[in-house]
Amino acid sequence: GNPQMLQINKSDGETITSDEPELLSQQQLGWSLPLKNLPFWIKGTPSPTFDQRITFTENGDPAKFIESDWHVDASRYDEVMGFRLPGKVKLSHGGVTITLIINQWQLGDT
């Protein structure tokens, strides 16, 4: 999916698509992931409109912040083409925890 569309492939083979991704995730999964923030969070940074407190590592990398009631915890930073990017990002909200493990970053002209 993307911020404009989400496709969920269910284990029974059913595919559900919606142009309202946050609503669909709420309906199908029971929780809503703010997809508009995900491109920032996966890099360990809050969205540009974020104005709260960020905790940094001793190397100056963003480590923890809370945005849209989600706790974002980035770690395992490495230098990738001149950028410091995390190898692990943990997102937590209520009883939901999503852990993203990034084995390889591919940077492009997006």
Topology of helices and strands:
Blueprint: E1 6-9, E2 15-18, H1 21-29, H2 38-41, E3 55-56, E4 62-67, E5 70-75, E6 78-80, E7 83-85, E8 88-93, E9 96-101
Gyration radius from CA atoms, angstroms: 15 Å
Identify the overall geometry: globular
Biggest β-sheet: count, sense, barrel? Answer: 5 strands, antiparallel
Strand coverage percent: 35-45%
Q: Give the uncertain stretches in residue-range form.
A: none
Helix amount, in percent?
A: 10-25%
Distance between the termini: 16 Å
Supply the helix-strand structural class: mainly beta
Q: Note the run of SSEs as H and E.
A: EEHHEEEEEEE
Continuous helix count: 2
Main attributes of the structure:
9 strands, single chain, 110 residues, mainly beta
Structural description of this entry:
With 110 residues, the protein is mainly β. The chain is 12% helix and 36% strand. The chain contains 2 helices and 9 strands. A 5-stranded antiparallel sheet has the order 3-4-5-8-9, with no helix packed on it. The chain has a two-stranded antiparallel sheet with strand order 1-2. The protein has a two-stranded antiparallel ribbon with strand order 6-7. A hairpin with a 2-residue loop joins strand 8 (88-93) and strand 9.
